[in-house]
Design goal:
five-stranded parallel beta sheet, 5 helices, alpha/beta
């Protein structure tokens, strides 16, 4: 069943956080939306596990970084008077983890911040965003961070 809520009916949002400026900007947009709509907001940080390791491998440095990213996201949400629930997952495929979390939480929208990235002369949204756009059973809001002057060349 496809759930398509108009923007004013969004009651829960999942924002993917990775500590980049693009992710932080998407977080701010998600917080503004959640505050305006009196919506629940969730943050997700995914640690991508290389194939050479077991999926449940001890990745303490990456998990510590994830904890710092989530703490910063929760602090940012607090500035909007929002209480954010955060989660860290380890997965082989970040996009799949995002979709699974969106389904588990039954959110109305997933928010993804993307940096401006050109690959072989064309803009590339990346594997995670592509997977989420193709597979999420909910709205997906992709927010591309503006390119720098050097990127516009």
């Amino acid at each position: 069943m496809v759930r398509m809520a108009p923007p004013e009916a969004v009651r829960s949002v999942l924002v993917v956080v990775d500590g980049t400026p693009a992710s932080n900007y998407a977080l701010a947009v998600a917080c503004e939306t959640a505050k305006r709509q009196h919506a629940s907001i969730f943050a997700l940080h995914v640690v991508e596990v290389p194939r050479r390791l077991p999926v449940d491998a001890e990745m303490s440095a990456e998990l510590e970084r994830g904890e710092q990213i989530l703490a910063a996201a929760e602090a940012a949400a607090a500035k909007y008077d929002l209480k954010m629930e955060g989660n860290i997952l380890q997965a082989r495929n970040v996009g799949s983890a995002v979709v699974d979390e969106a389904v588990a939480l039954r959110v109305d929208a997933v928010v993804i911040g993307l940096a401006y990235h050109r690959s072989y002369g064309r803009y590339d949204i990346g594997q995670m965003a592509q997977f989420v756009l193709e597979n999420a059973p909910t709205q997906v809001w992709v927010i591309r961070y503006p390119p720098t002057a050097e990127q516009l060349g």
